[in-house]
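Q: I have 302 residues here and want to know how they pack in 3D. Can you give me a structure?
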Amino acid sequence: MKKNSIFLLVLALFAVAHADAKGKKCAAQKARHVILIGSDGFSSAILRAHPGAFPHIESLMRDGSYTLRRRSVLPSSSAVNWASMLMGAGPEIHGYTTWGSRVPDLPSREIGKYGIFPGICGLIRDKHPQAVMACGYNWSTIGCLYEQQAVDINYDASDDRALADSMCLHIERSRPMFTFIAFGEPDEAGHAYGWESEEYFRMCRTIDGYVGQVLASIEKAGMKDDAIVIFTADHGGTGKGHGGISMAEMESPFIVCGKGIRRGHEIDESVMVFDCAPTIGHIFSVEQPQVWIGRPVMSVFE
């Protein structure tokens, strides 16, 4: 009788522990789909200066959580910040330190199973082997900053128009678990005409239109109710350049909207570009590697 009682007690404790672990796992899986939209050189200053001019991006802000004070790593240039966004760490650790880094300028502190510093795409693949992932960009350097072998669709577009059209088609056809879209503008307009120019403003409006197109495809694919959309950028700019330490160059929007995300919430906590990958990892119940220094932006979740 005593042995039976002990056996039943152990069985009950195992069942409780298993149920608790299962419950935590389900709770940590925040959504089935994440769509990360990045826009090269899209500054926070343009949103502050022209309220009401960007209906789709501003709708994400109203319906989700946001900050216009998210900071880039130094230098405030492209490859180093796209790498930090996808790799959850800064240049001192992942090793990509310059505007056009296609390989680490410093030895990466760690090399993952896909041959580069561990990033969010590889971690999602390892955690969710059956996941469909689609990544698209029109600056080929970005293709060097994530684990292409872990991704089903890798699209190097000729321009932002083609990128928007193709990635929306992939969303509607494949309903990816993770979609990454990196637009090349308005960075080129900023360099050509200036970050405070009318041409830059119009290009930001064009990007807003592409964001609206992506949102429409998410709804058309039946993903809207179980998806989280993130809109952000690598850096801002001033004059006709970037790479310095002014806040115009350092600050870009970080906007999170969708399932289980607080609505109309302005994020008070400090957010860095390398916090993007950990936030996505948290949504997908991915364990963060020790070598990452970024943190999930927990205040965005209900």
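Q: Anything worth noting?
A: The two ends are 48 Å apart (CA to CA). Residues 1-30 form one domain.
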